[in-house]
Design brief:
Elements: H1 2-27, E1 32-38, H2 45-64, E2 73-79, H3 84-97, E3 103-105, H4 109-122, E4 126-128, E5 147-149, H5 154-162, H6 165-168, E6 172-178, H7 181-196, E7 200-207, H8 215-224, E8 228-232, H9 235-248, E9 253-256, H10 263-270, H11 272-275, E10 279-282, H12 295-307, H13 315-335, H14 340-349, E11 351-353, E12 358-360, E13 371-377, E14 380-387, H15 389-398
Length: 399
Amino acid sequence: MKITKVMAVAVLAAFLGVLATGGLQAQTKEPIKIGMIQPLSGPIAAAGSYITNGAKIAVERINAKGGVLGRPLELIIEDNKSDPAETRNAAEKLIVRDKVPVIIGAWGSSMTLAMMPLAAQHGVPLVVETSSSSKITDPKTPGQKVVSRISPTSELEAVGAGALIPTLGMKKIGYLAVNTDWGRGAVTAFGEAFKKNGATVEAVEYVGQADTDFYAPLTKFKAAGVDSVVITDDAPKAAKMLQQMKELGLNVKVLVTGGSAWPDSIVQLAGPKASEGAMFINFYNPYDANMAGDAEASKYYVDEWKKKGLPWIGVVEGMRGFDAVNVVAKAIESAKEPTAPKIMAALKTLEAKGLYGLNKFDQNGQSYCNIIVTQVKDGKYSVVAVTPSSKLWEMAAAK
């Protein structure tokens, strides 16, 4: 009996040892490089840092399980300094010097568009995690053939929000947007959706990426007698806009597009009074794992974000990096080898549940994510409406 117990303990110890060292064995092999380009300096550096942290959480999770194809993943991160030219330079460095077989990036639409032709020239696939300009997945755009985008276009956001217009009573709209491909594209897409649902955009004002004073355009909206304001900009600037609307007494309905922050983040930045009644388009709910395409991954991601003490206001932005890395990892696994041509081919047929919803790509490289509309009321938030990614796929197939 004693011998049996000893043998049992030995077998158990050996088994546990295999489990414990599985990840370590992967670390001894040559890593698979993944390039990542984000704005880590400049006016939108916070957003880039959130996405980078989300990506790191995904890499840690994958490597702890043994990596991909028995090899660890290694992120090689470059700062595009919130500038299109710097983005292209970063892409060239990753492709030519680091020889990465795939790149994730590059937050802003103008930045992503700047590196697409170079990536296509070298045949390196791009997984786009944030950019929303319709140009990125337009077959006429140089470099489009290498793109797989998990973030929604402004048109997809508009579909989710447009149906709410009659219910909300939005008739005369003032549109305040950042002067980039993202902002300009959103104005066009939402303008069309509003018109179809009985509302009109009375005035459009564009602002710079580094602007903090929005009194002039907001005063114009007030003089025009708008009953609603739509905002397309990053979370800190959107919060500042809400504060200045309150100061000017511009008490109208507000819809914030872009999905970069859950409403409690805006409440924290703008304050409960300035954000009261505001509505937001989101793609991910960090408080309800079951609303994600992969509930287990969502819970893990949020838990790790908290454990690391990362800013809570960045948890929704960060999930973009988390999902992008998981999409790349699953594509590499499916490809059976980490080469650019194989990864690109695997992305075209990939179907993977993630935090965005169901990540798979149409003929133009576009995925359809969950669209969640929330509203702040009494300092708290509630989900107003949800269009799941599966529904958007059904709608696309019916066209």
